[in-house]
Design a protein that fits this description.
The protein is α/β, with parallel strands linked by helices. The strands form 2 sheets. The protein has a 4-stranded mixed beta sheet, with helices on one face. Strands 5-8-7-6 form a 4-stranded mixed beta sheet, with helices on one face. The chain is globular. It has 2 helices and 8 strands, in the order βαββββαβββ. The chain starts with 10 loop residues before the first strand and ends with a strand. It folds into 2 domains: 53 residues; 62 residues, Roll (2,3-Dihydroxybiphenyl 1,2-Dioxygenase, domain 1), CATH 3.10.180.
């Protein structure tokens, strides 16, 4: 029996102490517009097209969460050094940079560089570049 999958991400919700400030950071980082969220008090970073990924909703929860809900976005670029400078200027803090050895890479990939950042509220995300052979 074959099952047809009809799911896709509509939005990614991230808890934030200051949803508007964090939405401003992510809107500028991703080059997307910031708009009101789906619920009063939330703020959203909208998509600009189907290739842009899901909408981001920045949410200040009313109470403590029942469990830790870590999300670690990975952003890919062809302009690694320029994006590091731009993200840092927006308020991101670089935490760690790695370069994967060729033996650890899939066929057709010559090099991978990855920097882990913290956004202005300390949420971690990665910036990565895959350099083909």
């Amino acid at each position: 029996m074959t099952t047809t999958v009809s799911l896709s991400f509509a939005a990614l919700t991230i808890d934030a102490a200051d949803p508007a400030a964090l939405a401003d950071f992510w809107g500028k980082a991703l080059g997307r517009p910031v708009s009101p969220g789906a619920v009063a008090g939330d703020t959203a970073v909208d998509v600009t097209g189907p290739e842009g990924g899901p909408r981001m909703i920045l949410h200040n929860p009313a109470g403590p969460a029942t469990a830790k809900n870590s999300v670690h976005p990975v952003l890919v670029t062809d302009h690694y050094d320029e994006e590091i400078e731009r993200l840092t200027a927006l308020g991101a803090r670089a935490l760690n940079e790695i370069k994967l050895p060729p033996a650890a890479l899939p066929p057709g990939v010559a090099a991978v560089r990855q920097t882990t950042f913290a956004d202005p509220e300390g949420n971690e995300f990665d910036l990565v570049i895959w350099q083909p052979e």
